[in-house]
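User: Predict the structure for this protein chain, please.
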Amino acid sequence: MVPLDARSLVNRARSVIVLAQSHGRLGNRLWTLANLLAYAIERQFALVAPPYSDALKSLVLTRRTRLLGGWAGKLNALAYRVNLKLPLFPTLLLKEGELLDLDHDPDFERLARLRRVLFLSGFYFAAPKSLKRHREAIISTLAPGSEVLRRARNTVSRCSRCTDIQIGVHMRRVDYRTFCDGLLFYTDAEFYRVMQHLAERFRPRTVFFNLVSDEPIDATAFRGLNVKVHQGSPVEDMYVLASCNYIIGPNSSFSHWASFCGAVPLHVLDWKTMDRFSPNDAVYYPDPDRHFRVFEAADFGNHSSRRVSVRELLQRLA
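Assistant: Here is the predicted structure, written as structure tokens:
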């Protein structure tokens, strides 16, 4: 069963990569899509995938790329499930934490060219070399609509009139309270201490903090600091972060993408994890010159648990 819209793409490209299922939330979806799209551009393959946001419907990204939402996306997922039971085309299924480096596994390209249609499911499909090479094209292609970008940039621009430095603060809360025993969850008081430190560190320049979260933020918890609480859509909040001078937040693909697409130096709050596993590396009060850096294409997958090969994945389904 050839997935919807793949037939026309096969006629335009030698092979079609089909990402059948999205994994995780906005940041995860963007990173997987970005790597696959970069690889598809590099090898002149076609790509069919779900939208990176549930708010998006089906759309054409490039001549060879389709994002299928709504009923079209459901039919695409159905084609994937049918193909698992009656395999006409190969499927590569990554388990949680597994990473497949497409750029450095020649079997992936050979398989895609030989079988014409290749189904994928998983998160860490990485193509760091291709993503680095096509970075600007990927950022432009995956950018949200002009209205979303306008609102995010105008918000930050208005704040810049009364401040020298803007720091985006990503306060991921809902799932991080319990995920990994709460090691990635930071309270208002813990954020406040880091923010206050940075405000003092940048003096005499003035600092403004743009706060985004997946739950309501109590602005009174940050009295004495210049803050603005943003309550836009997840995509808009992400691009608010990407428009700042610096970003801080717990380890999350959301802020990773904001740093990558905006070329904004990021500091990952991870002292709770470091306290448990590597106390000497814990950073409680980050220094702007030493502890911030832009998240790069090669950084995607740093937290994967193991690398796998195409041969291993095919043998698993045999």
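The mean pLDDT is 89.
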